[in-house]
């Protein structure tokens, strides 16, 4: 039932504050991670893990890419790969590496095959981040950290992605504990997670303004998403959403790569979308955006209200009170809404985009 919403996708976008809170339920308490909630087997694996390999497809892969920054930040070596490549590569497994899969459905053929393959490869064990308790992935993994997004009907993944990121933040906290995170730091990070549903709520309140913004996209044939750090995979996710449901060709680039090729594509017909959080890479991103402006590219920014943007012309919507550790989750929301409203304007089948299936159970 779509309730008052026109599409399942919009309903699922608006469910995010609730399902994020649900995913945190019973897992954090009074500034502490309740690690026991991961189950007994998890402790053994997390104690022993010296590194992590993350395998996933599509949107779930993007969640893995964000998590890599989080894990490396606390000192855990991490590599991330799409399952279809992992399967056919001669993988060298470093000692004591935990095999992590991420999947909404838990039935994606390549991800499942990669998990099965991993069992013969000398990994420490397997952990999955998954949304479907009775799925093959959950049954066949040593540990399952469930996302509690509820059924996701729209083919374009939205609430599954943000709840995956929440589960991966919890995993990062568990590993950070083993890498010297003190109580004070843990408290801050847990509080940042606790305030996430409220912040996502604020991001959702931009929906009407984004609908307005989408008018500038409906006639475009291309779009470029830029980001640095964790916001690069967020840009990849924004581009995937736009191409999946509006059929506009969209690419994501790390902003620092512009000069190495994609800048040649920028002219007045190329909308450039970028999240501008208040983070240490801000000045660098702004100077990349300056390059876009110099070529006449039209900028669409989602930025932190505290920052000053010294660009001659841009469209921007601002977010307030965003915490650094959860900012990639919050900034995903306006990108989902932009894709959604653009697709509605174009009149595509938002919930069932052409050529795509919700769950890819064949190779
Ligand atoms: O069920 P999974 O998370 O394993 O699915 C992976 C991808 O097929 C999925 O994320 C796909 O890319 C979505 N259509 C993205 O919106």
UniProtKB/TrEMBL annotation:
<feature type="active site" description="For Fru-6P isomerization activity">
    <location>
        <position position="358"/>
    </location>
</feature>
<comment type="function">
    <text>Catalyzes the first step in hexosamine metabolism, converting fructose-6P into glucosamine-6P using glutamine as a nitrogen source.</text>
</comment>
<dbReference type="GO" id="GO:0006487">
    <property type="term" value="P:protein N-linked glycosylation"/>
</dbReference>
<feature type="domain" description="SIS">
    <location>
        <begin position="213"/>
        <end position="353"/>
    </location>
</feature>
<keyword id="KW-0677">Repeat</keyword>
<dbReference type="GO" id="GO:0046349">
    <property type="term" value="P:amino sugar biosynthetic process"/>
</dbReference>
<protein>
    <recommendedName>
        <fullName>Glutamine--fructose-6-phosphate aminotransferase [isomerizing]</fullName>
        <ecNumber>2.6.1.16</ecNumber>
    </recommendedName>
</protein>
<dbReference type="GO" id="GO:0006047">
    <property type="term" value="P:UDP-N-acetylglucosamine metabolic process"/>
</dbReference>
<feature type="domain" description="SIS">
    <location>
        <begin position="42"/>
        <end position="181"/>
    </location>
</feature>
<dbReference type="GO" id="GO:0097367">
    <property type="term" value="F:carbohydrate derivative binding"/>
</dbReference>
<dbReference type="GO" id="GO:0006002">
    <property type="term" value="P:fructose 6-phosphate metabolic process"/>
</dbReference>
<dbReference type="GO" id="GO:0005829">
    <property type="term" value="C:cytosol"/>
</dbReference>
<dbReference type="GO" id="GO:0005975">
    <property type="term" value="P:carbohydrate metabolic process"/>
</dbReference>
<comment type="subunit">
    <text>Homodimer.</text>
</comment>
<keyword id="KW-0808">Transferase</keyword>
<keyword id="KW-0032">Aminotransferase</keyword>
<dbReference type="GO" id="GO:0004360">
    <property type="term" value="F:glutamine-fructose-6-phosphate transaminase (isomerizing) activity"/>
</dbReference>
<keyword id="KW-0315">Glutamine amidotransferase</keyword>
<keyword id="KW-0963">Cytoplasm</keyword>
């Amino acid at each position: 039932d779509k309730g008052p919403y026109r599409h399942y996708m919009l309903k699922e976008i608006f469910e995010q504050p609730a399902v994020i809170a649900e995913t945190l339920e019973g897992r954090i308490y009074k500034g502490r991670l309740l690690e026991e909630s991961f189950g007994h087997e998890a402790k053994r694996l997390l104690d022993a893990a010296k590194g992590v390999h993350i395998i996933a497809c599509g949107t779930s892969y993007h969640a893995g890419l964000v998590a890599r920054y989080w894990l490396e930040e606390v000192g855990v070596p991490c590599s991330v790969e799409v399952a279809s490549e992992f399967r056919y590569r001669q993988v060298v497994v470093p000692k004591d590496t935990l095999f992590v899969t991420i999947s909404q459905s838990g039935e994606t053929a390549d991800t499942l095959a990669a998990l099965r393959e991993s069992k013969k490869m000398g990994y420490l064990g397997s952990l999955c981040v998954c949304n479907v308790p009775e799925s093959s992935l959950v049954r066949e993994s040593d540990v399952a950290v469930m996302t509690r997004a509820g059924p996701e009907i729209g083919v374009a993944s939205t609430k599954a992605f943000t709840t995956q990121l929440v589960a991966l933040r919890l995993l990062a906290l568990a590993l950070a504990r083993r890498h010297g995170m003190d109580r004070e730091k843990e408290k801050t990070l847990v509080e940042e997670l606790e305030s996430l549903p409220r912040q996502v709520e604020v991001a959702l309140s931009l929906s009407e303004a984004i609908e307005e913004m989408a008018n500038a996209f409906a006639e475009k044939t291309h779009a470029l998403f830029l980001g640095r750090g964790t916001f690069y995979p967020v840009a990849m996710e924004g581009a995937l959403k736009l191409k999946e449901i509006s059929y506009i060709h969209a690419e994501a680039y790390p902003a620092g790569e512009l000069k190495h090729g994609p800048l040649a594509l920028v002219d007045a017909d190329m909308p450039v979308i970028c999240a501008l959080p208040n983070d240490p890479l801000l000045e660098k991103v702004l100077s990349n955006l300056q390059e876009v402006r110099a070529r006449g590219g039209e900028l669409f920014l989602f930025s932190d209200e505290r920052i000053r943007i010294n660009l001659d012309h841009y469209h921007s919507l601002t977010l307030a009170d965003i915490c650094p550790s959860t900012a990639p989750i919050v900034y995903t929301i306006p990108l989902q809404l932009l894709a959604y409203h653009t697709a509605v304007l174009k009149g595509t089948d938002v919930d069932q985009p052409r050529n795509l299936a919700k769950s890819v159970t064949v190779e």
